[in-house]
From TrEMBL:
Top-level taxonomic group: Bacteria
CDD domains associated with the record: HAD_Pase
EC number: 3.1.3.70
Protein's name in the database: Mannosyl-3-phosphoglycerate phosphatase-related protein
MF annotations from Gene Ontology: mannosyl-3-phosphoglycerate phosphatase activity
Limits of the Sucrose phosphatase-like domain: 175-267
Cross-referenced InterPro entries: HAD-SF-IIB-MPGP, HAD-SF_hydro_IIB, SPP-like_dom
Keywords noted in UniProt: Hydrolase, Magnesium, Metal-binding
The organism of origin for this protein: Rahnella perminowiae
A Pfam family that the UniProt record links to this protein: S6PP
Keyword Hydrolase: yes
Amino acid sequence: MPYLDDPLIIFTDLDGSLLDHHDYSWQPAQPWLDKLSAAQVPLILTTSKTSAEVAELQSALNLTQQPFIAENGAIIHLPPDWRDEAAVPFHISGAGYPEIRQILVALRQRYDFEFRGFGDVTARQVALWTGLTEEEAALAMQRDASEPLLWFGNDLDFARLKKCLMREGLSLTRGGRFWHVMGTGAGKGQAVQWLSDRYQQKRGQPVISMGLGDGPNDLSMLEAVNYAVVIKGHHEHEMPLQREDVAHVFRTDAPGPHGWSQGLNHFITLR
């Protein structure tokens, strides 16, 4: 088990993990947030939220000097001191948002698929779907490389939609509330691996990675890290991990930030 002063990096999902599913509070996790900050352990927000949403949360959590992963891995944002003259603030994998929207609208018109995405509705509707305020919903609609969908059709049409998207170089990832359409090469696992490699290069030594998440869109992240915390979710989806090192996987019996803290208590030893 790692110690707090080991070369740790921690990747965390937000909704239903660090943030409570109902009220988006992280207060039960604050003692561990303070310990990680004092030990200078990087805490990398890894979420389906947009860059605009994560930037506000980063500020509230005092994490503005850390990278973050947004839109389910389609975007990696690097802090200013990570950039050189050739670097860009965002590492974007896959198609951009306008292209994704254009493909989705065309497929819906052609096959009469029954779905609605954020680009089809107002901030008020997104607020009703998510429980966010309208101002927060507006931030959630500032998308760069993915589109959340609610599916209203049948299973046969859904399978057809997946095949159509695959032909267009897009994929569907299941989140807590929505399906997310993004480039086939994007994903939390790929983004976690990319950032882990960057940390190893910067430090000149191997890093020990830990991931915490509660939903199906977290599975690739939980398979890419050394230690995985599967937080009890507010859903009925199975969370199977393709890992043989079962001692490095912990499943919590508490949801949200309580489960998040439970996972860190299980794995991290304080000297």
